[in-house]
Amino acid sequence: MDFRNAILSNPIEYLKGVGPQRGELLRKEIGVHTFRDLLYYFPFRYVDRTNVEKIISLHMQMDYVQIRGKITRMEVIGDKRAKRLVATLRDETGEISLVWFQGWQWVEKSLQTNVAYLVFGKIAVFNGYLQMSHPEMDLVTEETATGKQFLEPVYYTTEKLKARGLTAKAIGKLTKNLLEQLSPGEIPENIPTSILQQYRLMDRAKAHFKIHLPVNEDDANLARRRLKFEELFIAQIRICRLKIRRQQSSRGFVFNTVGDAFNTFYNEHLPFTLTGAQKRVLKEIRQDTATGRQMNRLIQGDVGSGKTMVALLTMLLAVDNGFQACLMAPTEILSQQHYKSISELLEQMPVKVALLTGNVKGKARKQILKAVEEGEIHILIGTHALLEPQVVFKNLGMAIVDEQHRFGVAQRARLWQKNTMPPHILVMTATPIPRTLAMTVYGDLDVSVIDELPPGRKPITTVHRTEFQRPQVMDFIKEEIRKGRQAYIVYPLIEDSETLDYENLMKGYEEVKAFFPEPQYYISMVHGRQPVDMKETNMQRFVKGDTQIMVATTVIEVGVNVPNASVMVIESTERFGLSQLHQLRGRVGRGAEQSFCILMTGNKVGADSKERIQVMVQTNDGFVISEKDMELRGPGDIEGTRQSGLIDLKLADIVEDRPILEAARASAEKLLQEDPDLSMPENQSLQQFLAAQQGKSQWSKIS
Ligand code: ADP
Ligand code: MG
């Protein structure tokens, strides 16, 4: 078995029909460098060449069709600048015009009249007549005449490739050339036989031939299914092995005691009883940190599920074992808030807490850095300023990252270097990740889920209101304020246009002010252009209840906690994605009062937005919403997945192919459980396949 197959590793220009110039283009335009890359350059659909329409039966609702006939006439028409070639094609039922706007000189020379052509193209209407522009023309051969032509694969191509003659069809020819040179033995199997049998998968060589040259739909589908399974299975084997290896090899600090800090706080200062889910997650963390291996755990907990308390108790555990801990949050406001609430909670305890952000400067900064280095500060809270090399800990044992999706993997990895042995890492995210995505993106992390909200919370009532109903919405807010509550009014950030954002927000602010005049009402405003201390002051006024309304852009999206706020009005809801709406809504419903989320839109709403609004109105469940979000937008758009660099699937789609993904995951786990080193004879081919792939992948980068 040779997965480093010499033929397949050949540079693409050596393939018959390519050569240096086209080779260069194939590399640049579609990333095909070798024969192997071309083999893996799969068609995205097929055209049924057995189906030929009669010209009389064509109509404008048709898309791509195939017809057969003879050219009866050709003429070049139009003035100098817009010349085109028009050919008339006739079959026994009627006529249709075929038109070429570009390259027509060449077409005119190559087409012949009065011989039969098989013509394939898209139906269009011009001046009330049906026509085809730039159709594909094939002389009728014996093969096509008898209708034995296979399904024709259609490959993605680009304008530049087409200009060099590399049309979809030409790429198909190259692939055919390649497959003709290969024997099945050159595409050896990499999936163990038992798994092939269990899932009735086509063998690997056959699948590669059939996906490019299928005889019928079934053939194509089975080939596709096999190759998708392979793609996902190999990815899962890699992820699972990485996890096993990490669990075996990466030594970590041992936290073997639960001491004074934890116990005193737990027994005397905890302001509420923990939920079952919080307790369970703490227990998982306790177990992880007692093993002597480095913990790498992800906590997924919906907004308001109480992750901060879990973080605090975890940090106290580190302190009890003689280590320092840090908590990193994505924004200044959020770090300040964590700092404030944690220092208050620890007020009567001998645990030292400090805040470090980009705004802590000069002498204050020097002092903090010194105290951290000397170990006088036990818990350091801050923004990514914590990652800077000047921040040196005496003995960091636990690093917690809040709202993970705002940080890239690379940043996370920098925390590892903050001690001689990497500290334990706890990552907390409020964006629930669909299970399938978690398997793919965070497959190597241990995942805990806080799937329970603190008791006494009433589900948030969500409604959709349009511009017509604005006065009623404002009255409703007044009513809530009268009851002592507070309200957020959030405006979207328009990408690439800070000015527009700002104008939008200001207009909104003036509008709100007109409805809520001083001195009866006070309004805070927070947006990205304000200096940090102003932002902070405005925020604090709202937190303290000095202002009843907070007008803001999405800067308040993440983590802000004002339990007395009971109304969240989201302006221009159309502009927000589902996860973001869910995050924003999560800013209310944090106290015991009934809370409301009002989704404002214009009077007319597009179908897409309507669907998102429906989801929001129907459910408060972050997991349901994230599934839906992924379905609507595709996994690549879910926050945090792109920078993770892990979703690089050619064929499989983790939404559509979820059953295949789950089967692949289950098979991979079972196989590695039985044979962790892949040393059993039946797993040799897989082992060799993986070895041949080493170095090509970026998997080692995951932290
Ligand atoms: P998130 O998971 O979104 O970060 P927080 O940690 O900010 O949530 O907690 C949300 C609110 O719930 C806070 O006001 C917090 O004090 C409160 N809270 C957390 N855990 C509990 C609990 N077990 N019982 C009651 N309230 C809790
Ligand atoms: Mg939080």
TrEMBL record:
It comes from the Bacteria. Pfam families: DEAD, Helicase_C, RecG_dom3_C, RecG_wedge. Keywords: ATP-binding, DNA damage, DNA recombination, DNA repair, DNA-binding, Helicase, Hydrolase, Isomerase, Nucleotide-binding. GO terms for molecular function: 3'-5' DNA helicase activity; ATP binding; DNA binding; hydrolase activity. Residues 681-703 have a biased composition (Polar residues). InterPro entries: ATP-dep_DNA_helicase_RecG, DEAD/DEAH_box_helicase_dom, Helicase_ATP-bd, Helicase_C-like, NA-bd_OB-fold, P-loop_NTPase, RecG/Mfd, RecG_dom3_C. Signal peptide: none annotated. Residues 672-703 are annotated as: Disordered. Its EC number is 5.6.2.4. GO terms for biological process: DNA recombination; DNA repair. It catalyses: Couples ATP hydrolysis with the unwinding of duplex DNA by translocating in the 3'-5' direction; ATP + H2O = ADP + phosphate + H(+). Belongs to the helicase family. RecG subfamily. Plays a critical role in recombination and DNA repair. Helps process Holliday junction intermediates to mature products by catalyzing branch migration. Has replication fork regression activity, unwinds stalled or blocked replication forks to make a HJ that can be resolved. Has a DNA unwinding activity characteristic of a DNA helicase with 3'-5' polarity. PANTHER family: ATP-DEPENDENT DNA HELICASE HOMOLOG RECG, CHLOROPLASTIC. This is ATP-dependent DNA helicase RecG. It comes from Chitinophaga pinensis (strain ATCC 43595 / DSM 2588 / LMG 13176 / NBRC 15968 / NCIMB 11800 / UQM 2034). The lineage of its organism: Bacteria, Pseudomonadati, Bacteroidota, Chitinophagia, Chitinophagales.
